[in-house]
Design goal:
Elements lengths: L3 H18 L2 E2 H11 L8 H13 L3 E7 L5 E7 L1 H25 L5
Antiparallel strand pairs: 1-3, 2-3
Length: 110
């Protein structure tokens, strides 16, 4: 498992990255994160839904009720233009951090 502190710093960019592809509902987000991380990141509804609420209040995502193929009403989340700008900026920040850590941890610097 990955440390909670590290995962907490990645919540927003993970959600925005998934929503960049298509709108989806909360439970699907939980399943996709689990699958994409090979089970090393496990979110619960108690973790995800407050995050989605905060992201909606910040204008990063918008929510709408839609009828799923099962006939059930679900709240779908979609990335907003502000969310796309935030994701682009955040991607750059994460890539810079990754580059620094890669240099620090490469065998040539050891």
């Amino acid at each position: 498992m990955i440390s909670r502190k590290l995962i907490a710093a990645s919540y927003e960019p993970i959600v925005l990255s998934i929503l960049e592809g298509a709108a989806t509902y909360g439970y699907d987000l939980i399943k996709r994160v689990d699958r994409l991380s090979d089970g090393s990141i496990r979110w619960t509804p108690g973790t995800l839904y407050p995050l989605l609420h905060d992201m909606e209040a910040s204008g990063l995502v918008k929510a709408s009720w839609q009828t799923a193929s099962s006939g059930r009403e679900r709240k779908y989340y979609a990335i907003t233009p502000k969310g796309r700008r935030t994701l682009a900026r955040t991607k750059g920040e994460w890539l810079r951090v990754n580059a620094v850590l890669s240099r620090l941890w490469s065998p040539a610097t050891a």
